[in-house]
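> run fold SMP-30/Gluconolaconase/LRE-like region
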Amino acid sequence: MVRYLASLGLLFCFACSALAQSNPVVAVLRDSEPSVSGADLNRDSAILLDTQANVINVISGLGVCQSLSSQNTLRFDAVHRHVLIAENLRDRVSVFDYDGTSQLTIPIENATAIVLTNDAKQIGCVAGKTINDGQTVFFDTTTGKEIRRLNLGAVALTNDVVGSQLWAIGKQLIAFEPPGEIGIRRPLTQLPVEPEHPTVINSRNWCGVGVAIEPNDNDWWRRIWVIERDHPDVTGSKTRLFAVDPDGQTRILVELNEIDPRSIACATYRGSLKRILVVDGVTGNLVSFNSDGELMGKVELGVQVVGFGEHSGLWVAARESIRRLDPSDLSVLAEHTFDQECDSVGLAVR
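> ok
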């Protein structure tokens, strides 16, 4: 009997180990770039991987393309073991389980970014043809039924690490609760030129394309980091990295000059904030800053999007591969090379 129970225990351990290994920790969204000859437009895919960059599953037949921001086109729902995907070419949000089985399809025009509320009960989706006329729409996670529409347009949005608040960036920086209560609204045109001169305003700022929050559970010690792009038709607009406190006050402003910011992440190492990471869309360099906004250096990795998760660490995706990096020195810890080269247009990291 003891030997039988021991065998059961061993089998249980093996089952738990196999189950743990089957849980993806990172997913990358791939735009397959169909030929002009009229090939299938909906042959893009989401690749799910484990911590060692081994492929667990591939969800194919998607319809996505590069947009202004790649920050929030893909999300994990760990509570329901789902992957959420904003299919902007198909005007819908698609929900799959980790095995790749479709669980839910939510029609919504011009879906550009998605977020999951902290209780995993609602999916939020930013939709709109332009930056100025967008809405944020919330749906029930299990039924797909629409719950509410907020007249809050954005390019990217993310969950706060404290409470239920969401942060959205586009033409303005907004902090709001899913029911619609707005805590902070800061138009980019009203941000100061420098934190030391808060009354000197740069009224020609164009658009923020990425937002990341320091993973610090202390409410008033964390900062919200934003990447802002200029526009050739907006004279005087700037390309910048800036940080605000939870009350919306600007604390750090960094002119990025020749850097074309496309993606941003805040990475920790052994519990302390190490780097603010920005992807340069022109060179593919991964540019890192410290928590004071000082340039630490850059690594020539040819990447397109960066993401960080407290469970699986720092990841970057490029046309040819996806890699897990050491946040302390940005060395490569694991890598998967894709079968074909194409744009990585979304990254979700647990």
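The first helix runs from residue 2 to 21.
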